[in-house]
Amino acid sequence: MAYIPAGSTAQAPWALCVTPARAGWTYAGLRALNLSGETAEFATGDEEMLVVPLSGSCVVECDGERLELRGRESVFAGVTDFAYLPVRATARITGRGRFALPSAVAARRLPVRYGAAADVPVEVRGAGRSTRQVNNFCAPEVFECDRLMAVEVLTPGGNWSSYPPHKHDTPGEGEAVLEEIYYFEGGPGYQRVYGAPGRPIDVLAEVGCGDVVLVPHGYHGPSMAAPGYDLYYLNVLAGPEEKRSMAFRDDPRHAWIRSSWAGQPPDPRVPMTSAAGEATS
Question: Does the keyword Ribosomal protein apply (predicted)?
Fold first, then answer.
């Protein structure tokens, strides 16, 4: 079940519900809520979670804290603020819009916290037709969690991201073992996942709003935005390492691509959004 079409895992109150058990692995999960002013109440159980507005705004209540998330009009309109929810908590979300809840099975119980949009590092990565924007809102060095990591990637129409293809499945220097989820909006686009020797996996999926691709192992990429259609994805990563790391290893056949960027200018359409909530192109 590497490719999960939009709506196929709906389970009230969730419009999307990918638990670690449903994914067939140990740590990473993702849920999504569609709200029209009502309140969704739920327990986090053994998972730490983030509340990430994809569109709209909400109020998050947990552990006696009340956090107002300004959110955004859409994932292509700006960088959003977000909230952190700890394990073994009961949370309430009231709002209007669509909200993603990345999660990871965790041991430490950290406090409820607010992440400001203005504090999210916005990175332009790659060059030429490999240029994309990465919003590193929950990268290891940016926001503290026990195991959970998450970033957003925006790829202009006609460009490739998650490129060169890379993997996180072998312990050792320079590579962290991670389960990874791709959640998409915009598109149409295409996502590739393929295996390393002895560990087969073969996915080439057309993806659009609400679709998910799971990466239990193997090389993932490219993520291809069809010409004329911008592509967004939310990456959720978690694994067994005590120290959070997103370290990866490129497919050696395509690793040379990175050195080619030195002679190319970045795509002028990137960055596509800013932390101020303004589209830049």
Answer: no
Report the predicted TM-score, pTM, of the whole model to 2 decimal places: 0.97
Q: How far apart are CA 36 and CA 175, in angstroms?
A: 42
Cα 21 from Cα 3, distance rounded (Å): 16
What pLDDT, on a 0 to 100 scale, did the predictor assign at position 197? Answer: 84
% the chain with pLDDT above 90 = 94
pLDDT of residue 269: 98
Q: Are 191 and 232 contacting, i.e. CB atoms less than 8 angstroms apart?
A: no
Query: Which run of H or of E encompasses 257?
Result: helix 257-260
Domain ranges of the chain: 3-261
Asked whether 108 and 94 are in contact (CB, 8 A), the reply is no
Mean pLDDT of the chain: 96
Q: How many CB atoms lie within 10 A of CB 96?
A: 15
Q: Which amino acid, 85? A: L
DSSP 111: P
- pLDDT > 90? residue 274: no
The pair of three-digit structure tokens given for residue 33, joined into one six-digit string = 């809520």
Mark out the alpha helices in the chain (DSSP H runs).
20-23, 257-260
Straight-line distance from the first to the last Cα atom of the chain, in angstroms, rounded to the nearest whole number: 36
State the DSSP code for 170: S
Look at residue 189 and tell me whether its pLDDT is greater than 70.
Answer: yes
For the segment 125-151, the average pLDDT, to the nearest whole number, is 98
Residue 111 CB neighbour total at 10 angstroms: 10
* Amino acid identity at 273: T
Q: Which two tokens stand for residue 88?
A: 């073994």
Q: Which CATH architecture has domain 3-261?
A: Sandwich (2.60)
Interatomic CA distance for residues 241 and 247, integer angstroms: 11
pLDDT of 98 higher than 60: yes
Phi, psi angle pair for 155, to nearest 5°? -120, 120
